What we know:
Blueprint: H1 2-19, E1 22-25, H2 40-48, E2 53-60, E3 66-68, E4 73-74, E5 77-78, H3 84-88, H4 101-108, E6 115-120, H5 126-142, E7 149-153, H6 156-165, E8 172-174, H7 181-186, E9 191-195, H8 196-201, H9 204-211, E10 215-219, H10 224-233, E11 237-240, H11 243-254
Helix pairs in contact: 5-6, 10-11
Amino acid sequence: MKRFAIFSAAIALCAGTLFAQKVVAHRGYWTAPGSAQNSIRSLVKADSIGIYGSEFDVWMLADGNLVVNHDRKFKGVHFEMAPMKDVAAITLDNGESVPTLDEYLAEFVKHPKLRLVLEMKSLVDPTREDEMAEKIVAALRKYNLLKRTDIIAFSINACMAFKKLLPIGVPIYYLDGDYTPKKVKSLGLAGMDYSMKALREHPEWVEEAHKHGLEVNVWTADEPEDIQYFIDLGVDYITTNYPERATEMIKAKTGTKSNTKAKKKK
Ligand code: MG
């Protein structure tokens, strides 16, 4: 009887590991004390709770420098049109400066269990997007982070630029929510990273994506009912501003420590 109980527990553990969602902190774990969106602290805090990955946003400034921030216009500075000196003068809400991509990746290498989910922000000029993708790939190579990175982008031009530049195995996910799984598959991308709205309108896309060998990430699921809906729908990743809440809910569903350290399939 005891042996059977151990066997059952092992099966449950395997099932949980295989099917549990992985949690991604949206713009880092910025809702933690002392943190701020896309700050170095948000990255450190994401790693401190043992989740799968930490998402962050990258802009290319007018002078070609790459920096980590979400908003196109932030604290009076237009990130696509400003030079580095303007961005360097900004102070984040937690007192940090806006990190350069170089600074961000240098910190990331100190957190080897965490995965990068790098969003390239869309630029007005597609040729600048191509240049930006090249610079991002060069930076990831410099820090030997290609094997620990998922690329995400709203711009299909950016997705295809990355596809030309990256070795097979570095997954690229499309964000804009308007392509079917079949279309995403035909473009050779790894999957869809879609809004809750897009996936609520097309819940069937999750199963379709899986049939095509694609993965599905949802953003940004914060409220418990939303997190539960997407756990039950069977998406692969949940991007959230409340990563500890999502982790606990996944754990409650699977009866395991969930998501976070599950081996990535790709
Ligand atoms: Mg983002």
